[in-house]
Amino acid sequence: MFIAIALGMALLCLAIFGLATFFLARGMARSFGYVFHQLLGYQPPTVALRLTSWASALLVLILLPVKGCSHMQVELYRQAVPPQFELVEALHHDEIVGFREGCGYAIFRLSEDNLARIRRQGLAYFDAAQLGRDGKPYHQYQPWQTTPTGEHEQLFRGQSCAGEPSELLEQAQRAVGKEGAFFTTGHEQDLVVVPALGLLIYSYNG
Question: What domain of life is recorded for the organism (predicted)?
């Protein structure tokens, strides 16, 4: 289900990109025509004007980061995280989305108040944190455990088919090998909280 939603978001982003290109190109064509006519006294051929406008619009939209699509992707990850965690910002995310399968991970910074409660209560704080914000059974998690992890625990599963791991992810991977962090697993995802780093990592594969 999560992959279908992610694929739908990717198609929506593509549609938004196409519409943005169309309207931007049309506006730029009018602007170019006005500039050429008013300043140079020359009216370029319609075909040349349209091609130039489309090329310029594509260049602008490719060079500018598509923040809206990135925001929607991060919001999907937020919905998979239980509401007991106060996510201040997404520090990094990486994903690969296919037609039926996909994988990825997101690294969030937790609020200082949230971290203080976790440090004060320890594992007891996580007792109620077993369902994502969206309340869907797909984002149901097992009871939380403390690190170090066992040999068969499948954590950071989404990193295996995403890009090169970020420095923050590598720090979190080292942290689960010793005491002080917390983790849980779900149907096709896992969560890791590292209070020492102030991070929560959501990862999925499937």
Answer: Bacteria
Tens digits of per-residue pLDDT, 114-161? 999 999 999 999 999 999 999 999 999 999 999 998 766 789 998 887
* Residues 60 and 100 grouped into a single domain: no
> Do 155 and 147 contact (CB within 8 A), yes or no?
no
Q: Which of 31, 64, 97 is the last residue of a domain?
A: 64
Rounded to whole angstroms, the Cα distance separating 206 from 190 reads: 12
**Better pLDDT: 95 or 51:** 95
3-state helix, strand, coil in the chain (%, to 5): 50, 20, 30
For the sheet containing 182-185, what is the strand order? 87-97, 102-110, 199-205, 189-194, 182-185, 145-146
Phi-psi region at 41: left, alpha or beta (left = phi > 0; alpha = psi -120 to 50): left
Spatial distance between the Cα atoms of 120 and 34, rounded to a whole number of angstroms: 66
Q: Do 60 and 143 fall into the same domain?
A: no
How do residues 158-201 score in pLDDT, each as one tens digit? 888 777 778 999 999 999 999 999 999 999 999 999 999 999 99
**Model pTM score:** 0.70
- With respect to residue 77, please indicate whether it lies within any of the assigned structural domains: no
CA–CA gap between residue 96 and residue 88 (Å, rounded): 24
Assess if residue 73 is contained within a domain. Answer: no
Query: Do 93 and 169 belong to one domain?
Result: yes
pLDDT at 95: 84
Q: Are residues 89 and 58 in the same domain?
A: no
